[in-house]
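Chain A, query sequence.
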Amino acid sequence: MTRPRTLAETAPRRVVVTGMGMLSPLGADVPGSFAAALGGRSAVRPAPAELAAGLPGMLMARAAREPAALLEPADRGLDRATQFALLAAAQALADAGFEASPDDADRIGVFVGIGFGGACSLDAMFTRYFHLLLGDEAGRRRASVVHPLTVPRLMANAAQALLSMRHGLRGMGNTFAVACASSAIAAGEALRAIRHGYLDAALVVGAEAMLVPGAMVAWNALRVLARPDAAHPAASCRPFDRRRSGFVLGEGAGALLLESAARAAARGAGALAELAGYGASSDAHHLTAPSSRGQVAAMLQALAQADLSPDAIGYVNAHGTATEVGDVVEAQSLVEVFGAHQRGPAVSSTKAVHGHLVGAGGAIELILAIQAMRSGVLPATAHLEQPDARCAIDLIAGAPRRVERIDAVMSNAFAFGGSNACLIARRVPAADLAPPPQP
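Chain A, predicted structure.
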């Protein structure tokens, strides 16, 4: 067993990203997803009748690949969200050149963010149960017979537990179910654990799979889902546009391997970026309406932790859900943080093309922001043709924006319930960097 660290050995440490993975509506990996985001290739489609819960005009952003088709047969019975988590995590670990069950496994944890854990398994169980219960006598006798592993499949921590076992990672870890901020908070708490010496590395995963009738009808009841564009359904989600009507639910997973800079250097791993800042706050305001005060607090915390001034941030991947109040409040928050009398950082919301992945959103959007920093190409907010005048920020619209260089990026995740999370990634010295992605 690895010897525990002493206080003298746990001074705050730099934390770097050494691997990333993704299976999203935009693509089956990070390069494919980033290329689709730059190209404005929307994954939004009309939901098929069997998923639309009898509601007209439902939209969704289905994952680019079926996860079960990419897994071994033994894993195909897992909940869909866990399947996504396994695939994204495997990509991130391979990207980092990370071997399973390392000698310091006691110092490596797994942190997962998920919103509706087990949604697909739960929906399927209830569908079968009530179908049989209301059927003939023979069916009624079978109604209560379910798979013996149903509960483990439904648990919110199913992905965290399985990833820990699959890769032999025995360090502290946790599952965060904080609605839309889940995986951003997972990444931030993993950053803290490594920075302050509780761990030397952590696998961070955000996963979500809730494209099922029960979840669709529940989200529809909140009146936050986008109305379909009759001529172009794929263009139905329009963050920051004055014609916006809401977001579209998506599914998938994103994963990052975080390591202390010292551990990464010791094993000769190249760093993709440094995860430098994390801020979190609670609005204590309203169950669904956002608060600028809470959002500003999270962003200022992240800047302070990263030891950066606001003008150091070159790009913000905004939460940008395309809701009437959400976009305006976030824009006001950005103006308060970055100043009303200067240009401020470039801002876009990639939810326009990949949908709102709820628990997976924070991880996926952080990865896209890191790719933007590394490539020097910033994705536009797709379908943004008539910017809302109340959103007085530097919105990227129409086409990606090429920049000579940016050294730090921010990713925001603001959740129902008033939980806010902000992450900042920055460049590491060129000698430590992996080759940048090709735009």
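The radius of gyration is 21 Å. The chain has a mean pLDDT of 93.
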